[in-house]
Amino acid sequence: MSSIERRDLYDNERNLTGETILKGEEIPEGKHILVVLVFIQNSEGKFLIQKRSEIKNGKYATTGGHPKSGENSLEGILTETKEEIGLELEPNDLKLYYSGESNKAFWDNYYIKMDIEDISKLKLQKEEVDSIEWMTVDEINELMRKGQFFKNHYEEFETLLKWLEREKSEEKN
């Protein structure tokens, strides 16, 4: 794995520009990068949450990151999940529940419902992730109240909860 990753740049309409920047470089004016997140929920309703390594701010968050140059959104989240927590996801099981834009970034958020027999067997990328655990919505809310949950990811989590509510009410109708 190359130590310096390239990221593709997109225009305001989310078209690839053919330009790239290195990880950590400033995003040029009028350009965007892509951010991908996945929320993994088990059959008990808990979410797989990671505690980020100290060099990545040490806060709790979901799994995600930036696709490498040449990867689309789906490929990016599959790569990030495999690299960060050693989990291979089936592309067809992922639901893209939200695409948005903020602060020079396009966001694609994915959701998957799956049970993982033993999360202690997953291979964590130590530069990125200190630990992982299943957490309830209340536990995640409490971490946010204490300032221990990564704010950007929490905002996306709130979007997920609204989407899940809509899904549930549509199933009833």
Word description of this protein:
- It is a single chain.
- The protein has one domain: Nucleoside Triphosphate Pyrophosphohydrolase.
- It is globular.
- Helices cover 25% and strands 32% of the residues.
- The longest helix has 22 residues, at 151-172.
- It is α+β, with helices and mostly antiparallel strands.
- The termini are far apart.
- The protein has a 4-stranded mixed β-sheet, with helices on both faces. A 3-stranded antiparallel β-sheet has the order 5-4-9.
- A hairpin with a 5-residue loop joins strand 1 (6-10) and strand 2 (16-22).
- The chain is built from 3 helices and 9 strands.
Q: What spatial order of strands do you see in the largest sheet?
A: 6-3-8-7
**What radius of gyration results from the CA coordinates?**
16 Å
What fraction of residues sit in β-strands? 25-35%
> What are the segments in which pLDDT stays under 50 over at least 5 consecutive residues?
none
* Estimated structural class: alpha+beta
CATH class: Alpha Beta
Could you state the CATH homologous superfamily? Nucleoside Triphosphate Pyrophosphohydrolase
Label the overall shape.
globular
Number of alpha- plus pi-helical segments: 3
Largest sheet: 4 strands, mixed
CATH topology: Nucleoside Triphosphate Pyrophosphohydrolase
Level of helix content? 25-40%
Per CATH, the architecture is Alpha-Beta Complex
Secondary structure tally: strands:
9
- Give the count of structural domains: 1
The N- to C-terminal Cα distance equals 48 Å
Mean pLDDT, nearest integer? 95
The ordered string of helix (H) and strand (E) elements is: EEEEEEHEEEHH
